[in-house]
Write the structure tokens for this entry.
Amino acid sequence: MKNFIFISILATLITITTLNSPLGAQEAPSQPAQPDQQAQIKKSINHMLARAQLVRSLAAEHHLYILANREDQIIRLIEDASQVMAYNLICEDETMDNQALNDIATDVTFKIAVMAGKSTIAKQLEGISQQITMESRMELVGDMATTVLMFEVGRRRGLFDALLTDFGNKRFCAGLQADVRNRYNELISEME
């Protein structure tokens, strides 16, 4: 699904570039660009970019709220999940099931989303909810919570990359394996 979305966005961008470039117009004289079609593509891209900006700003503010309020349980949960997920991106571990990793990500994302009701973004979300459907609001909150989690995974991955440079992949994976497996097993047992 992620690849499909990426390919769709890429195809749209290529279409816009082709439609706007003189070379693209020369290559396809039999199908001239429709002004309405160009306008719709530009409108769609502007909508996508505006939504992405909204998600990023909400995620950044919510992340700051989470860090400032440091609820020990959720902070530990986010840190453990991000470490397990970042480790899994680098090291192959047969004990870690992809579905279980997805369930961990879903559980943590849900808990981050629930905290939005108490966060500094709550008033913004309330204002936004009056302009969009409930389904769109839930998608927005889900995207925001996912962005917070993936920021933490990316931050952890950056730390791991520095260690990989020093120790190499094999030593790095062997050195962290026991700790990460423990965190993985604890996360799985907490979800049951």
Notes: DSSP finds eight helices and no strands in the chain. Residues 1-29 have pLDDT under 50 and may be disordered. Helices lie at 2-20, 22-27, 35-69, 72-90, 98-115, 122-129, 134-167, 169-191. The two ends are 27 Å apart (CA to CA).
